[in-house]
Design a protein that fits this description.
The protein is α/β, with parallel strands linked by helices and 293 residues long. It has 14 helices and 9 strands. Strands 2-5-8-1-9 form a 5-stranded parallel beta sheet, with helices on both faces. A two-stranded antiparallel sheet has the order 3-4.
């Protein structure tokens, strides 16, 4: 059997998983495989999952592994082409026109062009990793623009012509699935769904991301947040909140706070909604008892 080529210096999904772990991101086999295939096939990687499962962190870790600058396009309702592609620096253009007087000046030259994330990825495909974050928050008109960009990696600037990427940039899209994405966009991508990790895996993530946390704390927090995610909370704690909660608990314990009291006093690190806090406080003793089993 022929040996698989090394993709970006990574000869297999297992090699990518190890590199991600060295970058303090514990990737499951399925995620490492999807990411490796996206790199190998030159396709965008679409990561879907609930808020807080680590989609954006995966992109950050991958940019570190590849040695690329992360260029993030944060999507929101009403985002338009100017925020995603490029803008002209109109105040500077006007200033230069006033300074020039009767002297001819090209106000559509490179120095007046403001580079936005999609243009940055197109012009520097070997230097950046483009993260299109929470694409489901944008509207369908912007999704159509994004689909066109991902189809051929070109941008048309009327004043300067069409710009084309010299090679396919590395692109990651994330979605919280607040709405369904267009089927055509999905077909452009390698897809992976990220779920909350099982408690044992989350304990490993906590200890990897916060190396000073005691194993007992990490395991108790992992079990507690797993139970909290089953409750009807407005904002269930994500992985980042679990890591920070464990760190806060150990910091309070170091000051002499008893074990259950440290959990309770640090609750605001994990729960970030005024309706959720009293609900969780009423049930925290039971959750801790179950987490200690």
């Amino acid at each position: 059997m022929a040996r698989a080529p090394a993709i970006f210096g990574l000869e297999s999904p297992q090699a990518l998983a190890k590199a991600l772990r060295d970058a303090f991101y514990l990737a499951e086999d399925e995620l490492a495989t999807a990411a490796w295939l996206a790199l190998a096939l030159g396709k965008p990687l679409l990561l879907e999952g609930a808020p807080g499962v680590g989609k954006t962190e995966a992109a950050k870790a991958l940019s570190g592994v590849l040695g690329r600058r992360l260029v993030r396009l944060q999507c929101y309702e009403g985002i338009d082409a100017a925020h995603a592609l490029y803008e002209w620096n109109h105040p500077r253009q006007l200033l230069e026109l006033r300074r020039a007087g009767d002297r001819p000046i090209d106000i559509w030259s490179e120095e007046f062009l403001i580079e936005r994330p999609l243009l940055a990825a197109l012009r520097h495909p070997r230097e950046v990793l483009l993260l299109v974050d929470e694409v489901d928050r944008s509207d369908q008109e912007f999704e159509a623009l994004l689909l066109e960009f991902l189809s051929d990696f070109t941008i048309s600037i009327p004043e300067r012509g069409t710009l084309r990427a010299s090679e396919r940039p590395v692109v990651i899209l994330t979605s919280n699935r607040t709405r369904e994405l267009h089927e055509a966009l999905r077909r452009r991508c390698v897809y992976h769904w990220i779920d909350y990790p099982a408690p044992e895996r989350e304990a490993r993530i906590i200890m990897l991301r916060a190396s000073g946390v005691a194993e007992r704390t990490a395991r108790a927090v992992a079990r507690a947040v797993a139970r909290l995610r089953q409750e009807p909370l407005v904002k269930p704690p994500g992985i980042a909140e679990a890591v920070e909660w464990a760190e806060a608990i150990d910091l309070l314990a170091a000051t002499g706070a008893p074990w259950p009291e440290a959990f309770r006093r640090a609750l605001g690190v994990a729960i970030k909604d005024e309706e959720d806090l009293p609900y969780v406080r009423e049930r925290l003793d039971r959750l801790l008892a179950e987490a200690e089993r």
